[in-house]
Design a protein that fits this description.
86 residues
Length: 86
């Protein structure tokens, strides 16, 4: 049982290190690039308008967002799962 405990402890520490590195990298990108550059890299979505709202499975709210001005590129956005903290 000790090997399982040590395996779980080690992987937990490694996941914490990986998460900290991802947060550092994201912070560096967000502080160093303009919103336009972030959007071009697929790291943010700018100028959205609510097209519809409905209740989905388990009572979750499902929003359909579209670009505010269709002339600013694609008329449709790819499917996304944007959650809390994104």
């Amino acid at each position: 049982m000790t090997s399982l405990t040590s395996f779980v402890r080690l992987n937990s520490e490694l996941l914490s290190l990986e998460r900290a590195e991802e947060l550092d990298r994201s912070s560096a990108l967000l502080s160093g690039l303009s919103p336009r550059d972030l959007a071009l890299r697929g790291l943010c979505i700018r100028a959205l308008t609510l097209a519809s709202r409905r209740t989905g499975l388990m009572g979750r709210t499902v929003l359909e967002l579209v670009p505010a001005s269709p002339s600013s590129g694609k008329a449709e956005l790819p499917a996304n799962d944007i959650g809390v903290g994104n």
